Fold this protein.
Amino acid sequence: MTAESADLPGTMVRVSATIDDATFELAQDQDVGELKSRIEEAAATTGRFVDFTVVGNREASVLITSRTRVSISSETVFFDPRDTGDTDDPFGGFLDYPRGQDEASAFD
């Protein structure tokens, strides 16, 4: 699923993976079928980390075991041109704001 697969102009499809109680919104470049395969392979072992890229172009790594609960869902959201999956160009973190999200300096 990519930005081009959304039916409404100015929108894109956002895929989320819920792993146990944590939900991860996947970056647009993630191959969902390939991620599912890696999760299935890891679940067949005694445990293995699975890496993927989330919104904000940030890397995530989750330990998957045979007891891990995983669900994948999708929704249509407004298009965000920053959501490229390029981990060399992250966005959306605390330091992205000149004085932090609460208007205090990140370094005060």
